[in-house]
Amino acid sequence: MIPIKTKEEIEVMIEGGRRLARVFDQVLKEVKPGVETKRLDELGEALIKKEKGKPSFKMVPGYHWSTCINVNQGVVHGIPGGYRLKEGDLLSFDAGIFYQGFHTDKAETILVQRAKGPARGGVNSVQSEEKYKFLEAGKRALEKAIEMVRPGNYLGQISKVIEEEIEKAGFSPVRALTGHGVGRKLHEEPQIPCFFEREVEKTAKLKKGMTLAIEIIYNLGLPEVVLTSDGWTIETKDGKIAGLFEETVAVTAGGPLVLTR
What's the pTM value of the predicted model, to 2 decimals? Predict the structure, then answer.
């Protein structure tokens, strides 16, 4: 059963989402060549606590970090550590905040660079442009998926538009991982795949008060993923880059309400 939130509960999630968005703004400003991923995790935890919340991910049994950080071929659940970022890396930052009894969840992938904007000249310029196109596809898919979050629409419409947008750009939606409901628990019903296999009308109908963590999980190459030896990090099987974009969205009478911006 998909949990329904009251107006008052969604108000709490709105505030939690705003606080999480502020954490992201500050952490992503520190992403640059030479920074260790564990430093970003430490900063994220400190900022979440400063926002009067708790790191949602530390509430997952067995996971001892406040964020998940993936680089290049890393897809999800990457453990922060001593890796120093390099110019041209893709970094996916994923975090949740538990605020006044409710979780909100957010993720973003960015290109690691020394200066804003694509590099100019040489091979690095071409590579950067290709990576920007890859990231823009994920952002477009997320925006189109969010537009589907309306009462009376079907869950399958979200999955369908994600798959269509990612494949149209020439990339692969990951089939082994999904978005999810979110609220009192970090992971609630329903699962929200990035691909679509059934008739739309056979999927759940969206209702006012549902809160969904919509995730765009996609690869440059093949859709297959593998679990690494650390027991958490999931990477692309072919070693090519991956992207991750996520927002927590409420279904309201007026349409989609993004809580994590």
Answer: 0.95
